[in-house]
Design a protein that fits this description.
The chain is mainly alpha-helical. It contains two helices and two strands; from the N terminus they run αββα. Strands 1-2 form a two-stranded antiparallel ribbon. Keywords: Membrane, Transmembrane, Transmembrane helix.
């Protein structure tokens, strides 16, 4: 499967702002992981809120 040919047929280019689309796909996946980790972290309730 040739991802470059598929992407070029859909959007007509393989770069955005002079940077390869693989970089942007990687950045998007990392951003998604970071957002999910923050949602999970901030939604956890403390076990014992008064004790340290």
């Amino acid at each position: 499967m040739n991802w470059t040919a598929i992407w070029t047929s859909l959007f007509g280019t393989t770069s955005l702002f002079g940077v390869n689309m693989g970089f942007w796909a990687g950045m998007a996946s990392v951003l998604l992981i970071v957002i999910l980790m923050n949602v999970v972290f901030w939604s956890i309730k403390p076990q014992n809120p008064g004790q340290m």
